[in-house]
Amino acid sequence: MNDFIYRGNELYCEEVSLADLAKKVGTPFYAYSAATLRNHFKAFDQAFAEVPHVICFAVKANSNLAVLNLFAKEGGGADIVSGGELFRALKAGVDPKKIVYAGVGKKREEIEAALKAGVMMFNIESVQEMEAINDVAGSLGVKAPVALRVNPDVDPKTHPYVSTGLKKSKFGVPIDRAVEFYKAATDLPHIEVVGIHKHIGSQLTEVGPFVDALEKIVALVKDLRDSGINIKYLDVGGGLGITYKEEEPPHPRDLAAAIIPLVKDLGCTLVFEPGRVLVGNAGALVTKTLYLKKGEEKSFVVVDAAMNDLARPSLYGSYHECRPVQKRNGGRFMADVVGPICESGDFLAKDRDMEEPAPGDILAFMSAGAYGFTMSSNYNSRPRVAEILISKDRYFVIKERETLDDLIRGEHIPDNY
Ligand code: LLP
Description:
Layout (H helix, E strand, L loop, with lengths): L3 E4 L2 E4 L2 E2 H8 L3 E5 H14 L5 E6 L6 H9 L3 E4 L2 H9 L7 E3 L6 H10 L3 E4 L2 H14 L3 E8 L21 E2 L3 H10 L3 E7 L10 H19 L6 E3 L16 H12 L5 E4 L3 H4 L3 E12 L4 E5 L8 H5 L5 E3 L7 E7 L8 E9 L6 E4 L20 E6 L2 E6 L4 H4 L10
Parallel strand pairs: 4-20, 5-6, 5-13, 6-7, 7-8, 8-9, 9-10, 9-11, 11-12, 12-13, 15-17
Antiparallel strand pairs: 1-2, 2-3, 4-14, 14-15, 14-19, 16-19, 17-18, 20-21
Helix pairs in contact: 2-9, 5-6, 8-9
The chain binds ligand LLP.
């Protein structure tokens, strides 16, 4: 995260002072470093340089058009899960041939839009979905390129909400029935089997589960080939973790060293769907201190960002480092950092040993580039915050702060009801 650095007592993103930026654009806002985004993409890309591969950024982690465009310019594609994400990816200039489409509940109109765009493949999650895709493709007079998402029943050892590869999960088809499902797919006239997909979970901090899952998938690819079903694309999903606090996740190089030997003789193009590892530590949520409430039992720092802006702490109990944007080098205290929302679950940090801020002080919640803005909402009728991309000494408003009118757009009070 070395593009967010202190110069003296002031926190900078690249060459831009976050305190100055807060004065110019107001708070709260998400700040992203273009250099970090690029470096993360390149590190991943270079790690797998010796095998044919495509990096399809998981759009759900950060769907801003400018971020998608930055990765597209680096040669990346997109992993999408909805018609909305397809729309964004295309608008951002992502090559449709580098778009993979996953998700358990694709609707017919979404399938149609993806077929018309000419995506690389659909990652199919059930037999009924396969039939629906066959049907829609037939009505358009085309063949749909598909992979089956196979559930390898491997424990990713991560938070249960973001674990997806166990038997009890709603995702994918069970590995022991995969050959049968593939055979059914080849019988459908408007389906062309091109790949296989797996994704076992998010924020993985060890390579072990990746290797275990991939070994099972590689064995399956060989079985499928024995049955005459050719697999061109092996989509290994996303899930590589990042450091929020003390985690020591593998570098993409370590992941590459562990998995390339398993796949290099297979003759497949690898597809990756990294989300968090590309954007997480490239972003921070910058917020202003409104009030201090120092109590006997507990102290609270009330800031102008809240759980609707960054849901991860309340939703998963996630830790985001809280840094003063201008260090006071004063006393420390223990406090919860909370937002203005009217429920106790609204906190950004709990029992945090931190420098005691004063009202008006700007704070930065780090590692917020992934699943930050994308999971934000308008709860408590709070306009969504701005997103700012920083590149060297320049900054760009890549998403304007919502206005009050944005809050009620599309709402109507009916006449005579
Ligand atoms: N591919 C598929 C099919 C996925 O479902 C996901 C994430 C990814 C790729 C990207 O995973 P990543 O590389 O970012 O770990 N909101 C949660 C994370 C949910 C992840 C959902 N799927 C959080 O804030 O931690």
